[in-house]
Amino acid sequence: MFGRGTRLFAGAVIVACGALVGHGAVGSALFGKSVSAGAVKKVVANRVMTWNLCNPCEESNVDRAAEIAEYAPQVIAVQEACAPDVKKIRDYLESLFGLVYHVEYGSVLQNWGRCGGAPWNPGGYGQALLSAAPMTDRVSVEYPDGGSEDRGYMAVTTRVGGKAVRVFNTHLAQRRQEEVRAEQVGVLAKEIARHDRAIVLGDFNAVPDAPELSPIWALAMDTDPQCRPSSMGVCEPTTDWQSKFDYVFLRGITSLTHRVHPSRYSDHKPLQADLDPA
Q1: Cβ-count burial of 107 within 10 angstroms (0-12 exposed, 13-18 middle, 19+ buried)?
Q2: Environment class of 247 (CB within 10 Å of its CB; exposed 0-12, middle 13-18, buried 19+)
Q3: pLDDT in tens, 17-56
Q4: How far is CA 128 from the centre of its chain?
Q5: Which of 83, 99, 102 minimizes the C-alpha distance to 36?
Q6: Which of 10, 137, 224, 234 has its CA 20 to 30 A from that of 105?
Q7: Which whole-number Å values give the CA distances from 132 to 100, 238, 255, 256, in the listed order?
Q8: 126 φ/ψ angles, rounded to the nearest 5 degrees
Q9: Which helix (H) or strand (E) holds 217?
């Protein structure tokens, strides 16, 4: 029915599309759900979000970008992030949705198994921050003891709601490593305390009343007014196993609203906070 040249051309188009959007994204972007270019035109200037991307998980970076674009935060903190994936997410946010972000990385590992790349030049793995405003004074710190896997935090100065603020992004040691997390929190809290205005985002791998989080609670409050270490209220879960592990801690800044969003693309749910920087 079709000549050999036509078949070869069709095959080349499919391969090219696969290279463009990455593993699993051809089905999502071309043959499955529709990703609407230009669905969001500008970011919400006072909105921040934290999201553990899940790794290793074979999720499409197009789908991840679409998830972020739906909420269009000014600042996005991601954990378990591969530097090549974050770059693709940033590129899709711009090309598909018109959202332009700056990116800073806080990689603590060069991991071929998680992030691919050449064996002698594997992709960086750890945290990353995307901000609609430029970021300055970046630091990336690996905790002295990461526990079962190297962990760390990163920090930048950027603008949220038109105001300059220090923004942190961290991922603490895995569950059942309370003593390790306590040491990590000590390192992080010392740095947070240097700033009168700070937003601390990340996956802390601990529930709100975990003793190791006490130094953070002494410095900042969670975006959820009902969620406190000794609160009688209910802290909304941020994981598939119905625990709150993800936080937007605020120091010198007031939260207006917050929301936990369901997600098909990770075992963690994106946590969004709209802030009153003044």
Answers
A1: buried
A2: buried
A3: 444 444 434 334 433 344 555 554 699 999 999 999 998 8
A4: 7
A5: 99
A6: 224
A7: 6, 25, 20, 20
A8: 160, -125
A9: helix 214-217
Beta bridge partners of 47: 274
Contact 98, 69 (CB under 8 A): no
Tell me how far apart the alpha carbons of residues 51 and 200 are, in angstroms, rounded to a whole number: 13
Token readout for 31 is: 């043959």
Q: Which residue has the tokens 């306590």?
A: 182
Partnered with residue 276 across adjacent β-strands are 254
> Looking at the whole model, is its pTM more than 0.70?
yes
The total number of residues shown for the chain amounts to 278
CA 169, CA 79: separation in Å to the nearest integer?
A: 8
pLDDT at 277: 81
Q: Do the beta carbons of residue 229 and residue 207 sit within 8 Å?
A: no
